[in-house]
Amino acid sequence: MRDHIFRSVELLIYVFDIESDEEGSDFAQYAEVLEALEQHSPDARVYVLVHKMDLVRDEVREEVFNERKESIMELARGQLRVSCFATSIWDETLYRAWSHIVHSLVPNTTKLESHLNEFCKKSNADEVVLFESTTFLVIATATCTPHSDAHRFEKISNITKQFKLSCRKAHAQFEGMVLQNSHITMIFSILSKNTTIMVVASHANVHEAATSANIAQLRQRMDLK
């Protein structure tokens, strides 16, 4: 049974409930999973989510997570590629963890990010972000102008998903949108059947039509349909 479940595993996600009353049992099961992976899929990537961290008091949250992370990483013994995240449904942490996981599943990310960096410079944009179209998790980014808000992707994702939901309620198909004020222009466009691109520009000489043409060229260059 173990051989059937754990053979040829590429990626495994393991979730610890920080409020669990059976910590010893949880770690024993985790150790068994790692042992099975080392035996049957030693190249697998393991992502551990220490979940419900919002239930831990703010003043000790980081300390509690670091202690739990140390125990989690110690069991891995450095033989497996293990990443650990503190998560909660009430803040950006779960979104960030899932974006990291999705990013790791995308093939040729280096080439993809190279295309986005070239596009960002060519379009005179501040930032270019590639989202997965359904979840709006971040796949790849290119930043030409640093931004101070570390949680901007989650905020943008939530707003856009709500807008797409409104479109569905109105029996309309989301194909893109443009947000603009006196300081910034944001252009959303479907890049492929599974991805949506966002282009952010603060330069006055950046025009929507030119950016849309650049997106079409990017789609052709990357052979996306």
UniProtKB/TrEMBL annotation:
Q: Does the keyword Cell inner membrane apply?
A: no
**Domain of life of the native organism:** Eukaryota
**GO CC annotations, alphabetized:** Gtr1-Gtr2 GTPase complex; lysosome; nucleus
One of its GO biological process terms is: negative regulation of autophagy
Among InterPro entries, the record links this protein to: Gtr1_RagA, P-loop_NTPase
Q: Does the keyword GTP-binding apply?
A: yes
Query: Which GO molecular function annotations are given, in alphabetical order?
Result: GTP binding; GTPase activity
| Keywords on record | GTP-binding, Nucleotide-binding
Q: What family, per the record? A: Belongs to the GTR/RAG GTP-binding protein family.
Identify this protein by name. Answer: GTP-binding protein
Q: What is the native source organism of this protein?
A: Aureoumbra lagunensis
Q: Which lineage ranks, top first, belong to the organism behind this chain?
A: Eukaryota, Sar, Stramenopiles, Ochrophyta, Pelagophyceae
